[in-house]
Amino acid sequence: MRSAVKSATDARQQPAQVAPAASLTAAERVVAWLIPSAGDMLFACVLLGGLLYFQGRALGSDGDAGWTLRLGVITLTRGLPRTEPLLSGMLGQPTVQWEWLAQVAYALVWRLGGLNGVVALAALLIAFTLASLYAILRRHGASLLLAVALTLAATALVSMIWSARAQLFSLPLTLWWGEWLWRYWHDGDRRRLWLFPLATALWANLHAGFLGGFALLGAATLLAWVAPLLPGSVASATRANPRHMSLALVGSLLATLCTPWGIGLPLHIVTFMRNPLISLYTQEYQSPDFHQFSDRVFLALLIALVAVWLWSQRRSGANSGAGSGAGKIGVASGGYGPEPLALVMCGLWSALALNYVRFVPLWPLVALPYLVDALAHPQRMPATSATSANAPEQRQGSTPRSIQIAAVSLSKLRGFSRRLDT
């Protein structure tokens, strides 16, 4: 029974396409289900770390957590404030509390568990986000070793906003928003498009991060309209319908009206973004400081993404030969370079993150699945002429030694990763 349970546990931790190695009885399936997976352990470690170690950090050092909590308490006791209740310079003037639902959530857990409840909610949001990221990376084909390594790297970036504030609610919503886009782009299931207006109706009451979601959806919609103008093999790589995506975008825009402020929320956001003092004196709207460890992790991951794209394109060109598949972009085009959706999504969010540091914690949630895609596709490619035993002499001599060493090292790392999965 132990071997059968082990087989079921391994199967649960593998990507979805791997089937269990043995048929199990009902009792064995229950036992296998109770054994924690790597994703379960990751969720538990992050949650307990937030509860037991990061209490002070979760309460913040800039006053945002206290501000959020106080406004939530005011909303619970007096109702939703329509005028400014705290700032002395604007006291009594009309205002829009665009994060009111997140503020109420923090106030409720404070009433239930005090400041420990506030810390618990913040830790739960981050743990759920990172566990979801791990699951998505595995779904995209990442091995256990790669998924854990990338999730830990993402933790260093997400920890930049590890405080009890409304922005934490944007973490899982941004992650799943990007994943829904990726799935629809590849399967064309129109039912997925209903998720965007529904998520927007919730997101618009929690945090203004839904603007980033609009940027992703709008860019993908524009790409869907442009795709027919691309080479036929590239255009056929997507099953997205541009008309349906446009309707989803319009529906999401209309869903922003599902707040206590109605049209006042979009107008307030436009006024807020047009204020030049916000970008000049707010730290989150400054460029990243690459003297910080987390910003260096972001830079390293960005360089890794571009390097993997170039490397996979080079390999596809070497296998397809001159004038054949080389230079094409997209898996369906015969090459294994980045597909158009990956270029647009990662390029857009990288540009935002390089200009505004507030987008850096969200960058791994958008880009890392595409990094896994770029790493997974070359693994299914045939060996290059440089590593083939029957390759012509002139081709082996033309391959740089550094490429050969990297290929051997990567092969050994894959073998270790497969043993670790088992």
Query: How many individual helices?
Result: 19
The main β sheet shows up as: none
Q: How many distinct beta strands?
A: 0
Rough outline: globular
Distance between the termini: 17 Å
**Into which percentage range does the β-strand content fall?**
under 5%
Please outline the helices and strands:
Layout: H1 2-13, H2 26-34, H3 38-52, H4 55-58, H5 64-78, H6 100-139, H7 144-158, H8 170-187, H9 195-206, H10 210-226, H11 232-235, H12 242-255, H13 264-273, H14 276-281, H15 293-320, H16 340-355, H17 363-379, H18 393-398, H19 401-421
Helix pairs in contact: 1-2, 3-6, 5-6, 6-7, 6-8, 7-17, 8-9, 8-10, 9-12, 10-12, 10-16, 15-17, 16-17
Label this structure with key terms.
single chain, mainly alpha, 66% helix, globular, disordered N terminus
Describe this protein's structure.
Helix 3 (38-52) runs antiparallel to helix 6. The chain has 19 helices and no strands. It is globular. It has helices at residues 2-13, 26-34, 38-52, 55-58, 64-78, 100-139, 144-158, 170-187, 195-206, 210-226, 232-235, 242-255, 264-273, 276-281, 293-320, 340-355, 363-379, 393-398, 401-421. It starts with a helix and ends with a helix.
Short structural summary:
The protein has 422 residues and is mainly alpha-helical. Helix content is 66%, strand content 0%. The relative contact order is 0.09.
